[in-house]
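Key idea: predict the complex, not the pieces.
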Amino acid sequence: MKTVEAPGWAALGDPTRRAIFERLADRPRPVAELALELPVSRPAVSQHLKVLKNAQLVVDQRVGTQRIYRVDPRGLDALRVDVERFWKKALTAYKSAVEHGTEDL
Amino acid sequence: MTEAETTETTVWSSIVVEAPIDRAFSVFTQGIGSWFPAEYNLLGVDIAERVFEPRVGGHVYDRGVDGSECHWARVLVYEPPTRVVFSWDLSPQFQVEADPEKTSEIEAQFIAETPQRTRVDLEHRHLDRHGEGWEQSRSILDGDGGWAGCLRSFAKRLAA
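Result:
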């Protein structure tokens, strides 16, 4: 069965992007603030934000002269759907094992 | 970590089984080999046995037909017959992840609805800690072409 994989998994595979994402999940932040908090340059932070944005994990909004980034619930929903699908399948098998299994535990 | 993030990176699932709570708990834990998808296997050989060590600090591991072992979860809470929490220890390199900061957690709670019926509430949290590792493992779970590539990278790591 070929399934569509949420692009968010690959985007979060990078530790710096995960650190950025976790900070944005805490509260929205401008690029400059993220660059101050993390041991990477401001252009690097911008590049990571671009990847997170393409994966629909963050969105940005211009406020005055600043661009504020926040977590995008759409990307997170896609991640959750993948995991929900797995557990639905596993728990169905579990129910069958509990109700019809013969093993003595 | 804020409550909002916890919610956003958590999946809930629930199922009702026609069995007493003790059996529901023991099949979920020590009987994990009877239901957890068998295609989820990092060993490269068939699984002879899937073992759940029933204590805090115990491991969940697969033993291959050739005697090799893969430990892929740690038991964090063990309170029979009502609650169990274990980690999901997979790294993006498809090996056991030793850093607990990069593992997600699964909590299962067992509620006796009647003496013969049990509800299992499952919570899988901290999903964002995985990144690519989870993506690869899920490809195997779903049985698509991801398995061969993951196994190759695993073998390469062993050879390195």
